[in-house]
Amino acid sequence: MTKLMEIQLRPLVAADVEAVLRIQEQCYGQDFAESRNVFVRRLAMSGHCSWAAVRGSQMLAYLAAYWSLPGAVTPFNGDFEDYADASVLYLHDMAVSPEAAGQGLAKRMVQATREQARARGIERTALVSVQGSQTYWERQGYARTNPGNAAQQQHLASYGEDAVYMEGLI
Q1: Which of 70, 75, 87, 159 could form a disulfide with 155 if both were Cys (CB 3.0 to 4.6 A apart)?
Q2: What pLDDT score was predicted for residue 120?
Q3: Nearest 5 degrees, angle CA 59-CA 64-CA 68?
Q4: Is 2 within a domain?
């Protein structure tokens, strides 16, 4: 009997972009797939704190996150900002491949980023809920919040009519 390899979390790196794009398309379809170049730039910035869930060399899930400011929304297919005075953990994009669904990977990745935030003294987290995921995020302790100014409202609108900006405590 072959023992299954345990799923490990590790930092997401530029070499993972092809796997990220594959999982994105499986989970979101082409309408919400962001570009390869944008992901490479995001992973090159110092302020990202993104994770990959892997079994051996196979990526099963990812979480793209970075240090941000309250009310700041990264537009769809936009670059992450690098804030020296970051006070929020921004969960930009998370997807679990269909073959790994139901294994608790999303929760593990969110927990890993929250541990990083606690270590930095950050107490708040934010995200944009899309494709009807608002109830999921509410169960995780997030609440709908206005992102602030008109520019951030436009960034939010880039995700479609059902997009909701949400914040929660670490």
Answers
A1: 75
A2: 96
A3: 165
A4: no
- What predicted TM-score, i.e. pTM, was given to this entire model? 0.92
Per the domain annotation, does 158 fall within a domain?
yes
Q: Given this model, what pLDDT does residue 4 score?
A: 62
Residue 54: give its domain's CATH number.
Answer: 3.40.630.30
Whether 129 is in a domain gets the answer yes
Is residue 3 scored above 80 in pLDDT?
no
Contact call for residues 138 and 123 (beta carbons, < 8 A):
no
Q: Look at the chain and report how many structural domains it folds into.
A: 1
Q: Please give the Cα distance from 18 to 84 (Å, whole number).
A: 29
- Residue 78 CB partners (closer than 8 Å, separation 6+): 38, 155, 158
Using alpha carbons only, give the angle 5, 14, 77 rounded to the nearest 5 degrees: 115
pLDDT tens-place string over residues 19-30: 999 999 999 887
3 falls within a domain = no
The closest of 72, 74, 68, 81 to 158, measured between CA atoms, is 74
21-34 b/e with 16+ CB inside 10 Å = b? eebbeebeeeebbb
Q: What digits encode the pLDDT tens for the residues 40-99? A: 999 999 999 999 999 999 999 999 999 999 999 999 999 999 999 999 999 999 999 999
**112: domain range?**
8-169
